[in-house]
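Sequence only, no structure available. Ideas?
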Amino acid sequence: MVSIIVPVYKAAEYIARTIACVREQTYTDWELILVDDASPDETADVIRAIIGDTGDERIRLIECESNRGAAHARNTGLDSARGRYIAFLDADDIWLPGRLQTGMEYMHEHPEAGFVFTAYEFGDEDAQGTGRVVHVPAVLDYDHALSRTVIFTTTTLFDTELIPPRLIHMPYVESEDTATWWQILKEGHKAYGIDEVTAIYRRPAQSLSSNKFTAIRRIWNLYRNVEQLSFICSAVCFTGWALRATLRRL
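Reply:
I predicted one. C-alpha cells follow.
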C-alpha cells in the first residue's frame, strides 16, 4: 500500500480538487493522510465533509493542535503511515491519474529503486498546465543533486524497505524537502528519475522576485549551515543551481 501524505494549511480553496485527483488514481491500493497544520480557515471542515460525503475509508484527517510547519506535518503523517510505500503531495498541487501507477511499476521493474521521482509541468493559479515541463535525469546521486534541485516533492515515492523512515523524516529547516533528499542521498542511496510528467505544480500569481530572493537565501543556507560546505564549494554548487533554476523557468 502507498501512504500519501499531504500537509494542509489554509487550503480550503484547493483541497477538494487535491483529494479528487488522488481518488482518480489508476493505482488504488493507497491511504490518504491529510495533516491539517492548525489552519485558521475552514480547511478541516471541508476535509471532514468530503470524507463524510464520499465514505472513502482510505482517507484520514489528522489535526495538529498548533501550527508547526510543513516538515512537522509531513513527519506526523509519516509516523501514522501504514503503507510500505510513501508518497508526498502538496495541498495545492495536482496529480495526473497515472502518477502512482507510473512510480509503482518502475519500482517493481527496478527493485534497487527505493527513491523515485518524475518530471512535472508548471501550472497556473488554476493548476492548468502551461506547457513548461521540468525534465529529470535517470539517476541522481548526492554530489550531482547539490547543484540541481530538480526533485519535486509532489512527485516523490519511497520504498521504506530500502529507504528507512528515519531518512525520510524532514529536518526543521527552510527548504526542508531539499534537505531531506540530500540526507537520503548522502547516506549512499540514489534517486531514480522517470522522465514522464505525472503532476502539475500550481504557481499562484504572486511576487516572483520575492520568491526568487527567498529561494536564493534558503539554498545558500542549506549549503553553508546544513551541509556545512566550504564557501568555494557552496559557490560552485550555487552557480549550477542558479543556472538550472533559470533555465527551468524560461
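The beta strands are 2-8, 30-36, 59-63, 85-88, 94-95, 115-123, 129-134, 139-140, 157-159, 191-202.
Hope that gets you unstuck.
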